[in-house]
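Sequence, please.
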């Protein structure tokens, strides 16, 4: 088994960028891929909304500039997932990932995301419908189970693979834990023992040491980095290089360099999503980039509350210019 492949798609490394709602926009994925992330995955796309051709939902399908474009879909109806997968493939997706791990109440309440872990038979039917609809590889992301009593990941993974899934990702928490407590990488090993396809471990992986520990504890082939990459799109690439014994990518080493990256990200978002949505989406990213530096609170507030694109870009420049030359709060 090639540890850096998903079906017939070769990956750039063993550390991937997680699909994060409101975070894994096209510019963020593009930047992470540039730094060498093994794979970047779109934020979750609701299959019924994509089938309904909602404009904001279709924005999430963007994959320009990506050597490997992976789209994550969520849903609970086979027809919707199959049709959404066809749309994503037509938009250039090389891999389709099915979300069976999202713990959000609005998703679980619609019997999608991690709610599917309570019904592995139905979940497998969704995989089968998706696989039959497209020619690209289909993967599944899940949690350990819905709760500690029902740790259904091994069964669901087996059924998903039997239905045609070519790789599995397991977040080391249950749905009921959401993002609290500590990810249990050892508990992922039961899924490793259940399937032979490539397995990715996710949860609390924030650097190379935690990546190595997660791989050792879980028996997984790859790791997925989520929230730790917010404001640090270079992180999956750095970890990938370390795991594969390659030279690390050059990463920002000063406030000025981080500021240049923050501005580039903001400009790409404005181009991608337009002024109104772009401004809203960029605030979370700008705040995360700013967390690396020491800058006056007033400048930070100005960058996060600007109401016009030109004003926002000027505020970002001013924020990082004021911090340039200072010691970074977090090592790059």
């Amino acid at each position: 088994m090639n540890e850096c492949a998903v079906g017939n798609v070769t990956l750039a490394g063993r550390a991937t960028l997680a699909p994060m709602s409101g975070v894994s926009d096209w510019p963020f994925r593009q930047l992470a891929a540039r730094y060498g992330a093994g794979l970047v995955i779109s934020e979750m796309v609701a299959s019924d909304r994509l089938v309904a051709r909602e404009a904001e939902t279709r924005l999430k399908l963007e994959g320009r500039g990506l050597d490997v474009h992976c789209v994550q879909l969520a849903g609970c109806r086979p027809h919707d997932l199959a049709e959404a997968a066809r749309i994503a493939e037509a938009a250039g997706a090389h891999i389709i990932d099915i979300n069976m791990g999202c713990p959000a109440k609005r998703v679980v309440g619609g019997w999608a995301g991690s709610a599917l872990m309570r019904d592995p038979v139905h979940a497998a039917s969704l995989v089968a419908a998706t696989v039959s609809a497209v020619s690209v590889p289909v993967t599944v992301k899940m949690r350990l189970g819905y709760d500690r009593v029902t740790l259904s990941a091994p069964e669901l993974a087996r059924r998903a693979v039997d239905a045609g899934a070519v790789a599995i990702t397991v977040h080391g928490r249950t749905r009921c834990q959401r993002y609290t407590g500590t990810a249990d990488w050892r508990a992922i090993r039961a899924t490793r023992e259940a399937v032979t396809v490539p397995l990715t471990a996710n949860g609390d992986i924030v650097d190379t040491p935690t990546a190595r520990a997660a791989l050792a504890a879980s028996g997984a082939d790859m790791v997925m980095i989520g929230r730790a990459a917010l404001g640090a799109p270079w992180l999956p690439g750095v970890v990938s290089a370390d795991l594969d014994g390659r030279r690390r990518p050059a990463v920002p080493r000063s406030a000025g360099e981080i500021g240049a990256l923050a501005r580039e990200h903001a400009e790409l978002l404005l181009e991608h999503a337009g002024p109104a949505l772009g401004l809203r989406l960029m605030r979370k990213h700008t705040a995360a980039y700013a967390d690396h530096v020491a800058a006056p609170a007033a400048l930070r507030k100005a960058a996060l509350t600007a109401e016009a694109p030109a004003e926002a870009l000027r505020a970002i420049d001013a924020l990082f210019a004021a911090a340039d030359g200072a010691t970074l709060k977090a090592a790059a």
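The two ends are 33 Å apart (CA to CA).
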